[in-house]
Amino acid sequence: MSIDISDIAPLNLNIGSGGLTGAKHASAVAFADQLDLASNITFAAETYRDYTSLAAVATDFLKSSEIYQIASRWFTNCTGQPAFSIYMKNSSATPADNMTGFLHQKYRYFQLFKNGDLTRETIPGLAALCESERRGLPLNLTAADVVAAGTDDLGTLVHDLQYRHVFPAYRSAATIAQDAGQAYAHYATMATFSKFDPAGANTAIDTEYQGLSGIMPDNLSTTAVNLLKKKGIAYFSRVASSGEESECLPLNTWSTSPNQEAIDDVFNIDVLGNYLQNAGFNYLKGSGRKRALTVQGFSGYISAITTVLKQFNTNGVLGEGNITHPSTGETVYLQNGFLILNDETEVLSLTAAQRHARQYPSLNIIVLLARSGRVAPINLNVE
How far apart are CA 218 and CA 176, in angstroms? Predict the structure, then answer.
């Protein structure tokens, strides 16, 4: 069996001197209000602070506040060194404007908003921003009509946005009534990505099988579960087998991608893309000047990119399998989960105008994701 290359929309990446960082993707920013602050604490609007523990958050914020509940879900399920920031919102700005304000200050992948900030009026703009900036937007949907038949509920609206970077989940009112912090369960799901070490071996995760600490399962009917599956919305449950029950797990963990990508598909491609950009830039600037437009120079560029792709095979993001070659239509076996379609001699075919502009050939790559078997075309361009 071979897999067609249309599984995921092409990822177009640019390599340039501006804004390239080794981003920490297992990271989050939560957006706070002044009313969340503990007594006598000052926190200026449109600024942020980094926190490395829940105890540190409790120093600045009320334990009864929603921002503390959000932080609790994150820190309880985060391993290693947490990368967590809190941004004090401008109370008169939209969620998208507040996110933009933080984007200009620091990189954090997951954008954690209070449920009250996420409405049918605000979600579309925020989702579009996350899509364009490649940031993850987990949503905790709590309205009862999300698990009812119909097409006018918030869950359907979110599903129909068809964005890769929107990750919806449902929480029932009955569960939240027992513990208000349960309203932010999906933020715990996002925290489990901290287990993934891109430099390690077999550390990539599937969000579908991550046991969550401090999260209660919802008591959902079969009808409700089937509706959530139809709408592509995650839910939280235990799995019973031979009389034994698992920890509470997030299930049906899809993004709202039109290509039916799971959350980890989207996350892993974003991490890989960042590593490819950095490797390409570091190679091109390695000699103190842009590499020459020669076979040797382009071969070294391909080699630097190949090293990253092999690393992502080792860490478990990419895996072996067959694909259909986009040019020949033949079945090709990918031992390490990737195929670079370029040849180092392509640099000799550049036009005079391209050479005068010092334009490197675009690198065309196909990667095969180990967990889903999905194929992603990646186009790497040098600015």
Answer: 9
